[in-house]
Specification:
single chain; alpha+beta; 4-stranded antiparallel beta sheet; 4 strands; globular; YhzD; YhzD-like protein
Length: about 60
């Protein structure tokens, strides 16, 4: 499955925008959280989706 991870600054600027594939949703979420931490975006508004379904969200 393809997952889309996006993080935003308070002014709406896109800080991180990635597409990646995983067979297992739990692995995808773990990867997404680690990417957000690595890019120092874990405290920013972010979302991860799969097929239009919201998998991870932080505001």
């Amino acid at each position: 499955m393809q997952y889309f991870l996006t993080a935003f600054a308070k002014d709406g600027k896109i800080l991180l925008n990635e597409v990646f594939s995983f067979e297992n949703e739990a692995e995808a979420v773990e990867y997404g959280i680690n990417r957000l931490k690595k890019e120092q975006c874990d405290k920013q508004t972010h979302r991860m989706t799969r097929n239009g379904e919201l998998v991870l969200f932080h505001r």
